[in-house]
Amino acid sequence: MSFLGYFILHYNMNHQEINTLGELKAAGYQSLSIKDELRKNLIKKLQQQETVFEGVWGYEDSVIPELETAILSKHNINLLGLRGQAKTKLARLMVSLLDEYIPIVAGSEINDDPLVPISRYARELISAQKDSTPIAWVHREERFFEKLATPDVTVADLIGDVDPIKAMNLKLNYADDRVIHFGMIPRANRCIFVINEIPDLQARIQVSLFNILQEGDVQIRGFKLRLPLDIQFVFTANPEDYTNRGSIVTPLKDRIGSQILTHYPKSIAIAKKITHKKPYFYKNKKIKYTCQNWPEISLSNWFLKLEKASISTLKVA
What we know:
The chain is α/β, with parallel strands linked by helices. The chain folds into 2 domains: 31-98 and 143-261, 3-Layer(aba) Sandwich (Rossmann fold), CATH 3.40.50; 268-316, no CATH class. It is built from 14 helices and 13 strands. It has helices at 3-11, 21-26, 34-47, 63-72, 87-93, 120-129, 155-158, 164-170, 184-187, 203-214, 241-244, 250-254, 268-277, 299-308; strands spanning 77-80, 101-105, 135-139, 144-148, 160-162, 180-182, 191-196, 217-220, 223-226, 231-237, 258-261, 287-289, 314-316. A hairpin with a 2-residue loop joins strand 8 and strand 9 (223-226). The longest helix has 14 residues, at 34-47. The chain is globular, with a radius of gyration of 23 Å. Mean pLDDT is 81; it is low at 1-9, 281-294 and 310-317.
């Protein structure tokens, strides 16, 4: 199906009237991967000359074109830059490029596509109920997952682990894959998943991410599940962390399609605009800096003066 046909089909589809797999098929729904979905909606916005990343200034001729190219190329993305350079904000704004609603198999832990189910639960449910299989709808705001990488993050947090309580309640032995409790990444299937400060993640956990990106399988406590997860990964990293705390392992880095360098504002005018929109609250009080009468000084000195400004240069909000 062409992208034009996909637009017409999906934007004429009333999700409130579709509650079963049979109704979904009758409506002509066709699956689309999340990377194709992002690409399709980005192309539409560019054709209509809409602002894609609203509220981000200073990146119009540098970071944003590179990010758009990465999305059009269907790459996983690493945003590399110092603190306060809108890396996470850019990732969050990508949610606007998702379809408003997508269908999932009702009750699925990992957002199974009704036409392409990957979990045992969804496959067995569809096999038993066929076109009567219940369908649920997920809004795009629920399709954004974020995790801050810290040294104490475990494979169980991100990938999953064996759940002894589930095994006991279902009266299953540990050889049955139904005893697995999925972590954040499988639950982010068909979603955007952001890992902030990726160099802080232990090397063995980064290797487990490599398995997902490259092989499409999930390894949990001896189980090797073939789960072709459909995820848009966005990583953020601070170059200072490469020497202070860790690095991105080579196998994982090679599977990240685009690395984009962010930067601080390149002009006083843009820095002032950002400061006015994002007031700095001084010592948790509602006091914000005003920039109307600041002299034209170098950007680095301006940030230094902004931090050390006296109370006389502050304006109570």
